[in-house]
Structures
1.
Amino acid sequence: MIFYFTGTGNSLWVAKQLKETFDEPLIAIADELKRGEKVLKYNVRTDEKIFFVYPVHSWGPAVLVTRFIERLALEGYEGQPVYSVSTCGDECGHTDKLLRKALHKQGLILKAAYSVIMPNNYILLPGFTVDSKEIEEGKLENAPQQMKRIIAAIQQELTDKRDTLYHTGSMPGIKSYGVYPLFAHAAIGRNSFRVTEACISCGLCERICPTSTISLKEGKPVWKNTCVQCVACIHRCPVRAIEYGKETVKKGRYHHPEIK
Ligand SMILES: Cc1cc2nc3c(=O)[nH]c(=O)nc-3n(C[C@H](O)[C@H](O)[C@H](O)COP(=O)(O)O)c2cc1C
Ligand code: SF4
Ligand code: SF4
C-alpha cells in the first residue's frame, strides 16, 4: 500500500516508481481525507509493505500527511514494514523522526526513512524561489538513480540510515522542532493568494486543491482560510494567473514534467 501526497508532482513520481517495483496500490491521501468517515480503515496483507510518500514542508511532513495518520486504522497490521520516502528540495531535517512519532501514536512502527532530492517548489516567502533550469534538470536526471538505491535498500531490508539515502541537512533540531511547529500552526490557514486578469476560468485550481480551499466565483478562484501551502494551485495554473501577494510576481513556476 502506497499512501502519497503531492503538490507539484515530485512525490507522485516517486510513488509511481515504488509501485512499479513493489506492485502495491497507490492511495491519494488528499482524496482519502475528503471522505466523511472519522476513521480511515484499510486492510493490510501479511506480506504487505506500507509506504508513505510526501513532500517535506518546512523540515517536517506536509501537514495533510500527519492529519491523515491521525485518522488511520490498518486492519491486519502485525508489524509489516512501514517506510517513509519523502521528497525535498535539499534537506529534510528531522522529518523522519516527526513521521515516526506520528505513526507510533497509531501503533505503527517505522522501519526506515529515505528522501529524494527533487526540484524545489517553495516560492511564497522572500529568499525562496524555484531552482535554476540547470539545477532543476540535474535533479530530475539524478532522481531515477536515487530511487534505484532506495529500492535496493528496501529490497535488502537495510534499516540503517545512510546519509546518501536521507538528507538531514544542517541544524535539524532548530528547523524541525523550532521552525516546523510555527509553520504547521501559524502559516497554515492563512494565505495571500490572488488571481490576475490572465485567468481563463478553466477551474483546474479548484479541482486540484487538496483542501477544497478554492472555489470559482463568477469564473474566478477565491480562497478560504484552509490552505496548507501545498503550492499546487500557483504552480499548476496553465496561464500563470495566480500570485501570492507581490512575492511571486518575478519568480518562476515548477511542476514535475510527467504530472498531468
Ligand atoms: C511549504 C513548503 C515548505 C518546504 N520546505 C522544504 C524544506 O524544509 N526543505 C526542503 O528541502 N524542501 C522544502 N520544500 C520543497 C519541497 O519539499 C520539494 O520541492 C518537494 O519535492 C515537493 O514535492 P511535491 O511536488 O510532491 O509537492 C518545501 C515546499 C513547500 C511547498
Ligand atoms: S487554474 Fe488558473 S486559469 Fe484556471 S481557473 Fe484557476 S486561476 Fe484561472
Ligand atoms: S489553496 Fe493552493 S496552496 Fe493552498 S492547499 Fe489549495 S492548492 Fe494548495
2.
Amino acid sequence: MATTLEKVAERTWKRTALGWQLKCRQGEETFTDTNLLDLLISSPRKHKIFKIPKPIEKHLGADWLWYVGRPGAWRAYLVQAKKVEPDGGYKSVYHKQSFSPSWLGISPPVRQLDVLEGFARRFGAMPVYAYFNHYKAAGLPHWHCCQTLDIGQLGCTLSPSSTVKLPGLTGKDGFNKVHAVSETLPWRCIQNCPNINVQTQSKALFRAPEASIIPLDEDADEISLEDFLRRFDFQMEEIPFLPKYVVISTDESEVDEETSI
Ligand SMILES: [Zn+2]
C-alpha cells in the first residue's frame, strides 16, 4: 500500500501539470502547506507537524525542519522547498535575501543557501532542498531510488544543499541537472524506501546527523511547540530564524494506519 509520502508525491506530480494545463498554477507555498497538512491528516500518529506563527515567518532560512526516524534515532533535515516551472527550471533556487541573521556574520544581501547551511550547522541538521515537480521528459536518468521506476514519485524529491551550487538550475535544464545527481531521491526514500538499508550505505541523505536529543516520547500527542523548542534550549531571540514548520515523522511499524487524502 502506498504511504502518505508516496501519495502526496504522486498528487504533486499530477497537480503541477494540471495547474499549468488549466492555467491555475500552484505555487511552492501552496504545495508546502497542503502537503504537510496532508501528512498530518492521513497519519497523525506518524507525522507530527508544528507550524511556526506567521509574524516570525519573514525571517526564515528554511521552510521546515524535519525529524525522521523513531525515538532515540532521529535524522534531522533542514528543508528549503522549490517548485519547478513549466520550462523545467527552478526560478528562485539562487534566491538572495536582504535580511541576514547576525549569527551568520555575512552582510546582506545574503544567499538563502548560506542561511540554510549556516542554520543547519547550528542545529545539527542536514541542509536539503525539497523539489516539487512535474517534468515531461522525466525518466530513468532522473531516478536514483533502488526501487523500480515510478515517475509520480518524482513529484516530491529531496537533495543535499550542495546540488544548489550547480549552475543553470533556473533555466530549462534545472530539473534535469538536479535529478541527474545520484543523491537526489524521492522524498519517501528517507522514511520508507523498502531497501533503505541498501541506500543507507551509499546516499548522502542517509548520512544526515542524528539528533542528540529525542524530540518525542510516549506523550508525543500532547507536546506543544513551546515544549519542543524548550528541549532545544532555545533563546527567544533565536526564534525568528526558525523554519515555519517542524515536522516529525516516525517510521515505527505499528503506526501504519492511514486515511485517504
Ligand atoms: Zn528509494
